Amino acid sequence: MNIKTLILIIINSLIALVIALLSFSSYKQFSNVLNDRILLQLNSIKTLKQNQIEHLLKSEWERFEASEFYSQKIDTTLLKLPDSIKNSNGIHDFTPYQAAKKTTIGFISNSKRGTIIKVLDYNKIKQILLERTGMGDSGESYLVGQDFRMRSQSRFYPNKIPYNISVKTKGVTNAFKGINGRGVFEDYRGIDVYSVYSLIVVGNLKMVILSEIDVDEVTLPLKELKERLVGLTLAIFLLAVMLSLFLTRFITNPIKNMQKSLRIMAQGDYNQTNEFIKNSKEIKEMFDALASLKASLQGAVKFSDDIGKMNLHSDFKPKSSNDLLGKSLLAMRDKLIEFRNNEENTRILSKRLLVNGMEDERRRLSRELHDGVGPYLTSLKHYIENRVKNEEKKAEMKKIVDDTISEIRLMSNALMPASIDDFGIGVTLTNFIESLKKSTTVKIEYEDLTQQESSNITNHQAINLFRITQELINNSLKHADAKNIRITLSEFDDFISLFYFDDGIGFDISTVKLGLGISNIKERVEICNGTITINAAPGNTTFEIELPIEL
């Protein structure tokens, strides 16, 4: 194994290890913080609802005891209570004894006047449990009786009677054992949830209250973070590989030069002595650089550990201008901070490169038509004039060739007007519109207010302004049913203004089809860092486009 390969393996292995540790540490810490915060929030919600339910039961019991006329007629056909329940004062869960198994909580008081029973209006408890503020799309709070059956309506099974739903989960079991807690486990649906639970004991009533939310909903941001970390890790690793390739070439080139010098000297040519001495000095510097790299790696590992703890403001300075690992780690930190900001710039740059590529291809095709096919047609025309004897056929053939030459010139001009490079956008639009007037009855007025001699309009801007104007005129002629078109191109010190007007039928900007070219126009304005204002009213359709002067 040569030294270059060995260095590449060692450096990239270290970099891969640092990046992996950093990504894992960041992901793990974010996951732990997320779990703690979700469970803490659920615990707060559960505690609030527990306090509200306990307060409701106690206050209703006190009101029941204090009332002198608190008798309530109970339908014995729907509620059949055993004597053991009737003879026990306090708050009870009547649900198992209710014929339809509807959730029923009631009060019993035995006095000289006899046994008095009152059923609590369950809607009061239901209103407390149905309040799901802060619980997302899948969160719910519910009650479970001592028989491990639900006592509140499930939001996931709204058509089921709560009593028919069995809830023998870890949280319910622990709560009835007197253990209040929280954790992640399966709920009564078999779905993994974050859950907090505790036992409600009021008089003779014992129920478990649980507040839960689906794990899938909570961990969605975590999954997105994982995907971004994987993508960022791969990007940084590729960058590190490229940097390490440069570094290895920087290290091994002096050794190769020394090897070359030694071979020349072994052949008896000693005129390479000065070069050999120079290379020896570079080899010494190479070993000094390796010692510096060791110290740099130590600092980089410490800095990576700080980043792994999300301490993105940790102080770190590269050992020198050649500390590529230090620079890559700083770049990684900066990318973690600025990643989202760069997304928009990348998107606009991609569009600009795509448009520039299309325009270059149009320029090439235009040149091929003008310089390739054009001369052949001209030669054909001379041949007809000099060789064809029949005057009638000669005239007919010349007309066909002239029409073909004219059509090719129009095609070449439409693909990329030659005047745009030689005379600028103002003259090009003038020629284009004058040519267009010959083939349409629509009145087109064009005013050129650009600075012909000292224009600051770049070729990139000129091409896009030409394409935008082409698209606007094409839309007016094909779709707008316009009679008049006015165009003004103005050049100021700080910006370029293109004003376009037609008196056509207008369009609905919110529903306009992409085929009308509006999307294409907006994209060209965007890649030129410009702004566009559209008024699509019938009889007064205007486009106002401004592009900054690129100095």
From TrEMBL:
Name its species: Flavobacterium limi
In short, the EC number is: 2.7.13.3
In Swiss-Prot or TrEMBL terms, this protein is called histidine kinase
Q: Mind giving the lineage of the organism this protein is from?
A: Bacteria, Pseudomonadati, Bacteroidota, Flavobacteriia, Flavobacteriales
Q: Which residues form the HAMP domain?
A: 249-302
Kindly list the residue ranges recorded as spanning the membrane: 6-27, 229-251
SUPFAM superfamilies given for it?
A: ATPase domain of HSP90 chaperone/DNA topoisomerase II/histidine kinase (SSF55874), HAMP domain-like (SSF158472)
Entries under SMART domains matching the protein = HATPase_c (SM00387)
Which Gene3D superfamilies does the record associate with it?
Answer: 1.20.5.1930, 6.10.340.10, Histidine kinase-like ATPase, C-terminal domain (3.30.565.10)
Q: Which residues form the Histidine kinase domain?
A: 364-551
Instruction: Report whether Membrane shows up as a keyword of the record.
Output: yes
The answer to whether UniProt assigns keyword Phosphoprotein to this entry is yes
Q: Which keywords appear in this protein's UniProt record, sorted alphabetically?
A: ATP-binding, Kinase, Membrane, Nucleotide-binding, Phosphoprotein, Transferase, Transmembrane, Transmembrane helix, Two-component regulatory system
Catalytic reactions of this protein: ATP + protein L-histidine = ADP + protein N-phospho-L-histidine
Where found in the cell?
Membrane
